[in-house]
Amino acid sequence: MIKFLKIALLIFIFGGTVFLLIAANEKIAEQRLQSPIIELNVQDGITLLTEEELLNELRVLHLFRDSLQKSELKIEAIESYLEEMNEVLTADVYMQLDNKWHIDVKTRRPIARVIASGVDDFYIDNDYELMRLSPYAKPKILAFTGLEQLISSKLGYDEIINNDSLKTICKMDQIYRISNYVCKDAFYNAQIVQVHYTKKDGFIMIPRVGEHKIIFGAADSDEMVADKFKKLTTFYEEVIPYEGWSKYESINLKFKDQIVAKKKE
């Protein structure tokens, strides 16, 4: 009899504990959540997205609203959507024990804007990935023009994005090498504002200071790019201080181990 009472008491205690846990979980599930704590990791000061714009995206998809219940929070769906956003590189969504929830996002870093007549502009980022323009921000980055000679309405962003051969044919690899070097160099990041492509001379740079054009030619390797900028730096440091910024019409870097500078007539 005593054994039976002990067993009954244990069952009662266990059942009561389970009941309390279920009731507590239901109460927790019904708790209203505050807005998430958002951490935006922006690369090189290039802001593509604000916290409010990110929340608005989630509101439109009904993944977030004010006074959202904890049971309604779809962490995996939110994280998956954010990772697919054009502006986002990585996303991490998680809940703390105190019921505060977080959204940590690292945004992408565009380094070149590709412009071709008849085709929507697009970016190349610092990981050599193509990305569409953002509806939220228009960062001032290096613009590449004249690409309609290589890119047409039949060979635009959608065709190029996942095709490495087309990327090479359309000079995306060379654009990346030039822009990647420029954005990492403080002087040239400020000095070079546009790069125009022609079949005759390859890439031609337009500087912010000076009335000359810089005939850069091809950018077939990182070493070639670094060598050409090294020659340009030598010219800027050893010639411009004596001749001035307005004396030259062009600076040609296409030839190996030499600089061909043409003075204005």
Condensed summary:
With 265 residues, the chain is α/β, with parallel strands linked by helices. It has helices spanning 2-29, 51-60, 75-84, 157-160, 164-169, 172-184, 186-191, 222-238, 240-243, and strands spanning 32-33, 37-41, 68-69, 88-95, 101-107, 110-116, 119-125, 130-132, 142-145, 192-198, 202-207, 213-217, 248-252, 260-263. It is elongated and about 110 Å long.
**CATH fold name of the largest domain:** Rossmann fold
Poorly predicted ranges: 16-29
State the share of residues found in helices, binned by percent: 25-40%
Number of domains: 2
Specify the CATH class of the largest domain.
Answer: Alpha Beta
Structural class: alpha/beta
Number of helices: 9
Radius of gyration: 29 Å
Q: Could you report the average pLDDT, rounded to the nearest whole number?
A: 88
Tally the beta strands: 14
Order of SSEs = HEEHEHEEEEEEHHHHEEEHHEE
User: Beta fraction of the residues?
Assistant: 25-35%
SSE layout and pairings?
Layout lengths: L1 H28 L2 E2 L3 E5 L9 H10 L7 E2 L5 H10 L3 E8 L5 E7 L2 E7 L2 E7 L4 E3 L9 E4 L11 H4 L3 H6 L2 H13 L1 H6 E7 L3 E6 L5 E5 L4 H17 L1 H4 L4 E5 L7 E4 L2
Parallel strand pairs: 2-5, 6-9, 9-10, 12-13
Antiparallel strand pairs: 1-3, 4-5, 6-7, 7-8, 10-11, 11-12, 13-14
Describe the protein in words.
- This protein has 9 helices and 14 strands.
- A hairpin with a 5-residue loop joins β11 (202-207) and β12 (213-217).
- The longest helix has 28 residues, at 2-29.
- The protein is elongated, with a radius of gyration of 29 Å.
- With 265 residues, it is α/β, with parallel strands linked by helices.
